[in-house]
Specification:
This protein is 0% helix and 25% strand. The protein is an all-beta fold. It has a domain of 60 residues. A hairpin with an 8-residue loop joins β2 and β3.
């Protein structure tokens, strides 16, 4: 079972904030990951896409797409138990660019 809770807080000057977090067990599957460079540094703004795999009998179906955060993290869920998923990660080099070309018919 996974347990997780996260929140942000921005206190005002001289303010004391008290909170209680109640974690509930999460029974649904989820995929949490981190994208790292070849030098082990987090990769920010990598495009991560998850597909429900058809295993050659059907086409893969896109389930979701996210960009990694500044720590290279991403998450997908909830997922369906006992299904095969494929994850693809894309990150363009800063020096790459895409050119569109048009073909003129004579």
């Amino acid at each position: 079972m996974n347990y997780h809770e996260s929140f942000c807080v921005k206190p005002n000057p001289h303010e004391r904030i008290e909170t209680t977090i109640h974690l509930q067990a999460e029974h649904r599957p989820a995929l949490l990951g981190t994208v790292l460079s070849d030098t082990g540094k987090p990769v920010e703004n990598a495009l991560v896409t998850i597909y429900k795999s058809g295993c050659a009998s059907q086409d893969d179906m896109t389930i979701g797409t996210v960009y990694t955060d500044n720590l290279g993290r991403f998450a997908f869920g909830p997922l369906e138990p006992n299904h095969l998923y494929e994850v693809k990660v894309f990150k363009y080099n800063e020096h790459s660019r895409i050119l569109e070309q048009s073909i003129n018919n004579p």
